[in-house]
Design brief:
With about 290 residues, the protein is an alpha+beta fold. The protein contains two helices and 16 strands. It starts with a helix and ends with a strand.
């Protein structure tokens, strides 16, 4: 009887242990499954966000410029500037008094109020329209602002302008420009950008230059450069124009007034930077 009782107790203990092991195993498996599901869900969310970001970053930039009548010509219209890879398409449409001859058109240096020499020749405006693909990028054009688009009366009357439009930081507001200002974390063009990280340091760009001109941050922290000036800002590392000290810092584009560029510094060092469109204005960031 005693032996049978002991055997019974041992069997009960073994059964309890088995149940405990099975129970703990089930709990562990459940937690692992939940963790795996959460990880897969997070990965899917991040993949979707990156895909959406990629779509937005791939959107070509474009701007529409009004071409105003000059010298009571009776002609006015618009010019559309569109990014086509590393080239730029310029489309001109004129309305009003029709011309019986092709009309030369160019992108000139300076504004309509003070027209300079020809910067980029465009196809003649014929029957009110012209399409030209320039072998230069939009960023190259933006770096040379102010410019103007001018349409002339005819080849024989090249000194007479019939329509003109300014290309400036106020008129060249790009649509599809990486969704600038579309959201708190969607304002930064390329570079070592952390989309989920808030800027921990602020540098403003004014007409007088960058302020503060020098800051100190830690590795992994982000700096936001905000353009508060009346001109364009293109943040890049020294030296100008090669930007070889820290190539990744290069914004690779012009940032307009009210917009910003964020960059996450992933390595330590002392990095001098400047405005590529005005290299006399710059600053220093010390990363420790």
């Amino acid at each position: 009887m005693v032996i049978n009782q002991k055997k019974g107790n041992v069997a009960i203990i073994i059964l309890v242990v088995i149940l405990l092991v099975v129970g703990v195993g089930a709990i562990v498996m459940s937690k692992n499954k939940a963790a795996k599901n959460e990880a897969e869900k997070q990965a899917a969310t991040e993949a979707a966000a990156k895909a959406e970001q990629g779509k937005m970053m791939a959107m070509p930039r474009s701007a529409e410029i009004s071409l105003n009548e000059q010298g009571k010509s009776g002609q006015s219209g618009k010019a559309t500037i569109t990014e086509v890879g590393d080239k730029t398409k310029v489309t001109i449409s004129l309305a009003g008094k029709a011309s019986t001859v092709p009309q030369p058109a160019h992108i000139h240096l300076k504004s309509c109020a003070d027209i300079g020499g020809v910067k980029y020749p465009l196809s003649n405006v014929d029957k009110g329209s012209s399409v030209t693909t320039l072998d230069v990028s939009i960023d190259e054009i933006l770096a040379g602002l102010p410019l103007s688009i001018n349409v002339h009366k005819s080849a024989s009357q090249i000194a007479t302008y019939v329509a003109c439009g300014d290309l400036s930081t106020s008129t060249m507001k790009m649509t599809g420009d990486m969704m600038m200002n579309a959201g708190e974390n969607m304002g930064a063009p390329m570079g070592e950008m952390d989309m989920g990280k808030k800027a921990v340091a602020q540098i403003n760009y004014t007409d007088q230059g960058f302020t503060p001109p020098s800051i100190e941050i830690k590795v992994g922290e982000t700096v936001r450069f905000t353009n508060m000036s009346a001109t364009g800002m293109w943040v890049a590392s020294n030296p100008h124009p090669t930007h070889t000290d820290y190539p990744a810092l290069d914004a690779k584009k012009v940032i307009f007034r009210g917009e910003f560029y964020e960059f996450n510094f992933s390595k330590s060092g002392t990095f001098k930077f400047h405005n590529h469109t005005n290299s006399s204005q710059g600053g220093t960031i010390v990363v420790k």
